[in-house]
């Protein structure tokens, strides 16, 4: 019958058939620990509740306990002759007591107490060898701490009893080092002090024995105000009178048993088969080649740590490279899976790994020592001067790997891990080989190798969709290929459709086995995270941008996120692809979203989203005011959520850089705020982003964000938000030549602003109507609205908007042939813009002034104003207005009779418009091309 062994004198563990059993999270292990302490005895639900939660149990502890017990039953082997059973009002775990290290320790200790010294010495050694550190080392409940305290006392008592036996049998010399350490650990305990004093005296070091006695006597007096006890005083008196009983002779060692046969001459060939399909990775393979050979010829000594998240292809790379270099390792190749992130098993203990490595090198199992340090020494002896390749796959951390490194420079070690391994890199000069996803061409080649050219060529669009939605992750591509091969009748388009929805994408990447289930692979990495890193990982699902900076991460968490983010980077669940920019793979983001909805409450997710939106709103607003300093600012009406971390850009350049880096995330933020019913966030974010998008010519993005803001404002009855959105949508339609659409929007805006009694919004609506009527060449109507807007702006004291509308009034006068009025208003606009320090506005007014002079027939002055405007447009980076100004300058040259200069300016304008490729510019481009004879 299968035997299951349990350990609690260290971390909680269980073994069956030489394989570790996964015991689940800490509270679940607490349940098992309580049952193991009282193995074969019933433990009530109240006792289990106290063991797991102490004084802070959940509202329904019984249901949670039953869930833990059910999972433990599932984890424990069905073939085991034991198990967890109901007993009265509680549960008991039925097992052989000798299978639990704690009860085996008690049995050996009790038998030692009743035995002669020779037998007792052996039994105490066996009992103390069972300890693997602190009992219940992986639990931190009040019950575990109390149990730990009791058991550590029992261990100390057993050690002292063992030392008494050894001293009675003449082992004083061998014990000296141990006794000195123990006396230092327990400076007020008289028993280890007495044992040390006796061992010193019997070893001929009487002076040191008397000094040790004086040391503890003074310590007891100073710390406790007492004298030594009778046993210690008696020993002191016996030393003074030379009455200490002489030490018995050290027992002669038993004749050595016939030694184990020497290690067999074994050349291990343990590498698993190379990956049947392998594409890409030229840079990483070259890095490994370089590490192997070095710059100075053959340099075999090498440790390379291959890192990346689950499914990225670490093992495939290691095995592919290893098989291509087996000839370099004539003494063999060893492969060991350390199970650092195994979905079904705990990480392999170092002791087990050492035994497997030693066995691979041909040592007789009977010759392998019991103590880990002796195992390490034997392993390094067996590898000395051999040219071996050792592949340590799936390592949990550096601590698991370091004891497995050979001590000779002739061996090469490849280590793969989902974690970064800084201990190996810093302490052992390991070469770090990070892996990234495959590019689109490599991903397609991988599918081609799996599925064959006939099936791939038959559905090129579906293959492209599969490549895109697997996002370059080799395991995802292989899983989807496996599903396609298992269902040859299934169109690839159907698989691509399954991968379309984020909420079900991971279901599509499950081929039915643990090793072919992407969710399971990700879960192994997630379970290894510290709690705060796991929380940040879940919250990152709320951020959809391609990457995010630390302030956005801190806003998600509501606190400093640097340490948890560093933990995610070490675990390769997040990559820092540029300084201060952290990205999450799309499929990992899907998994993070699943965990967020499973583990975080709706209130927690909503609070994190609000902090993130506040970070973007307050930072974008500050950036917008620096990007366009003279723009009439809006007031942010929503208070900053506690824990949100806005950024305040220093200047125009930093504001523009931040808007460029975060533009995709800001587009999402508008949509997400609208979906969440946060109308004010939605329209104020859209307002903050509009100028940047306009300068970039991204008018469709403006329409998308403003429409989302408009719908949210309507739903919430926010008239100001509606009015702002209508106005921005109108101006964008105007940019695109959709004049009727712009009029519709502005009629709504003017109606809303009148209902609100908001003079600023009325002024802005009239201003926009000026531009619409002007574009339709209805200049009389345009001038009426421009003059109404000018009156309102002056009443409001809005100098920047006054400058804008002065420019428009001047333009309309020019179109109507009122040359003197046109020049006067445009010159006022130029002067006002200059006083405001607004180069963009100044350029626009100079362009209008040039046009007014042109219409008045003063071509020299017109050209001068246009050239001045061009310099300013180029300084502020407005390519669209630069092209318009070049067209106007060319027209002035033609009117002045300089055809060559005109063609030069028109050519430059056409080049810019072709580059921008805006649909609304097609008529202008056609006219320019016709003038130049291009089309």
Automatic annotation (TrEMBL):
- Stored PROSITE patterns: OMPR_PHOB
The ranges of region (Disordered) come to 247-266
Under the heading Gene3D superfamilies, the entry gives:
P-loop containing nucleotide triphosphate hydrolases, Tetratricopeptide repeat domain, Winged helix-like DNA-binding domain superfamily/Winged helix DNA-binding domain
Give the DNA-binding residues. Answer: 1-95
Domain (OmpR/PhoB-type) spans 1-95
Q: Does the keyword Repeat apply?
A: no
Q: Does the keyword Transcription regulation apply?
A: yes
Task: List, as start-end ranges, the regions of compositional bias called Pro residues.
Answer: 248-263
**Which CDD domains does UniProt cross-reference here?**
BTAD
In its UniProt record, a GO molecular function of this protein is:
DNA binding
What keywords sit in the KW lines?
DNA-binding, Transcription, Transcription regulation
Mention any Pfam family matching this sequence: BTAD
Name the family. Belongs to the AfsR/DnrI/RedD regulatory family.
Name this protein carries in UniProt: DNA-binding SARP family transcriptional activator
Give the originating organism: Nonomuraea angiospora
């Amino acid at each position: 019958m299968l035997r299951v062994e349990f350990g609690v004198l260290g971390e909680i563990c269980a073994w069956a058939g030489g394989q570790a059993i996964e015991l689940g999270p800490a509270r679940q292990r607490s349940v098992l620990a309580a049952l193991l302490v009282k193995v074969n005895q019933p433990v009530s639900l109240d006792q289990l509740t106290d063991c797991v939660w102490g004084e802070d149990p959940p509202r329904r502890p019984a249901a949670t306990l039953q869930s833990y017990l059910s999972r433990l039953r599932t984890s424990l082997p069905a073939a085991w002759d034991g198990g967890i059973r109901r007993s009265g009002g509680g549960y008991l775990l039925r097992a052989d007591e000798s299978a639990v290290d704690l009860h085996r320790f008690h049995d050996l200790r009790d038998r030692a107490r009743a035995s002669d010294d020779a037998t007792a010495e052996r039994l105490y050694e066996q009992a103390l060898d069972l300890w693997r550190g602190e009992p219940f080392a992986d639990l931190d409940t009040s019950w575990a701490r109390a149990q730990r305290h009791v058991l550590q006392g029992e261990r100390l008592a057993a050690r002292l009893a063992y030392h008494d036996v050894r001293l009675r049998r003449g082992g004083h010399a061998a014990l000296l080092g141990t006794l000195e350490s123990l006396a230092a650990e327990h400076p007020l305990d008289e028993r280890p002090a007495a044992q040390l004093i006796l061992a010193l005296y019997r070893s001929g070091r009487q002076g040191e024995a008397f000094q040790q006695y004086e040391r503890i006597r003074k310590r007891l007096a100073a710390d406790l105000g007492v004298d030594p006890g009778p046993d210690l005083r008696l020993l002191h008196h016996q030393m003074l009178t030379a009455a200490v009983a002489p030490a018995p002779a050290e027992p002669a060692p038993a004749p050595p048993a016939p030694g184990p046969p020497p290690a067999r001459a074994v050349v291990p060939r343990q590498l698993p088969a190379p990956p049947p399909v392998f594409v890409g990775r030229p840079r990483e393979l070259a890095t490994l080649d370089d590490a192997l050979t070095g710059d100075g010829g053959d340099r075999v000594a090498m440790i390379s740590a291959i890192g990346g998240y689950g499914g990225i292809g670490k093992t495939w790379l290691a095995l592919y490279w290893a098989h291509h270099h087996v000839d370099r390792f004539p003494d063999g190749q060893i492969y060991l899976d350390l199970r650092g992130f195994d979905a079904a098993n705990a990480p392999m203990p170092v002791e087990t790994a050492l035994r497997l490595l030693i066995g691979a090198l041909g040592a007789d199992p009977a010759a392998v020592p019991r103590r880990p340090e002796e195992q390490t020494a034997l392993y390094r002896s067996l590898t000395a001067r051999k040219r071996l390749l050792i592949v340590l796959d799936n390592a949990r951390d550096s601590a698991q790997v370091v004891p497995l490194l050979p001590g000779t420079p002739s061996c090469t070690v490849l280590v793969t891990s989902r974690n970064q391994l800084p201990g190996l890199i810093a302490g052992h000069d390991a070469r770090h080989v990070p892996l990234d996803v495959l590019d689109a061409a490599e991903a397609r080649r991988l599918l081609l190798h799996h599925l064959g050219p006939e099936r791939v060529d038959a559905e090129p669009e579906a293959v492209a969709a599969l490549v895109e939605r697997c996002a370059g992750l080799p395991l995802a591509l292989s899983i989807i290929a496996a599903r396609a091969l298992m269902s040859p009748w299934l169109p690839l388009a159907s698989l691509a459709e399954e991968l379309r929805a984020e909420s079900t994408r991971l279901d599509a990447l499950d081929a039915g086995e643990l090793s072919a289930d992407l969710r399971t692979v990700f879960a192994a990495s997630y379970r290894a995270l510290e709690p705060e890193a796991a929380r940040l990982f879940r919250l990152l699902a709320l951020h959809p941008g391609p990457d995010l900076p630390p302030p956005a991460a801190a806003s998600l968490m509501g606190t400093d996120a640097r340490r948890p983010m560093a933990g995610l980077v070490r675990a390769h669940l997040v990559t820092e692809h540029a300084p201060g920019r952290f990205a999450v793979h799309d499929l990992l983001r899907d998994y993070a979203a699943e965990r967020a909805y499973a583990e975080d409450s709706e209130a927690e997710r909503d609070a994190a989203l609000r902090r993130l939106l506040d970070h973007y709103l307050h930072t974008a607003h500050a950036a917008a005011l620096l990007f366009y300093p003279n723009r009439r600012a809006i007031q942010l009406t929503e208070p900053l959520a506690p824990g949100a971390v806005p950024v305040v850009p220093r200047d125009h350049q930093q504001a523009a850089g931040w808007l460029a880096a975060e533009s995709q995330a800001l587009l999402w933020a508008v949509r997400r705020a609208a979906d969440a019913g946060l109308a004010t966030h939605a329209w104020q974010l859209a307002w903050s982003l509009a100028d940047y998008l306009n300068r970039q010519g991204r008018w469709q993005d403006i329409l998308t964000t403003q429409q989302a803001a408009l719908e949210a404002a309507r739903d919430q009855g926010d008239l100001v938000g509606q009015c702002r959105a209508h106005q921005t949508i109108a101006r964008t339609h105007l940019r695109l030549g959709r004049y009727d659409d712009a009029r519709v929007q502005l009629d709504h805006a003017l109606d809303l602003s009148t209902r609100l009694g908001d003079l600023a919004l009325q002024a802005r609506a009239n201003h926009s109507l000026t531009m619409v009527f002007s574009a339709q060449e209805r200049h009389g109507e345009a001038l009426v609205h421009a003059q109404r807007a000018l009156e309102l702006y002056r009443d409001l004291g809005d100098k920047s908007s006054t400058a804008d509308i002065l420019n428009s009034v001047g333009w309309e006068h020019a179109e109507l042939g009122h040359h003197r009025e046109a020049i006067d208003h445009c010159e006022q606009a130029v002067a006002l813009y200059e006083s405001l320090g607004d180069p963009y506005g100044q350029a626009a007014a100079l362009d209008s002034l040039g046009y007014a002079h042109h219409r008045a027939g003063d071509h020299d002055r017109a050209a001068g104003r246009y050239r001045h405007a061009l310099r300013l447009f180029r300084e502020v980076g407005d390519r669209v207005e630069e092209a318009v100004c070049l067209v106007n300058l060319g027209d002035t040259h033609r009117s002045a009779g300089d055809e060559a200069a005109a063609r030069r300016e028109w050519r430059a304008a056409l080049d810019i418009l072709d580059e921008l490729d805006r649909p609304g510019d097609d008529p202008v481009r056609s006219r320019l091309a016709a003038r130049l004879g291009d089309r």
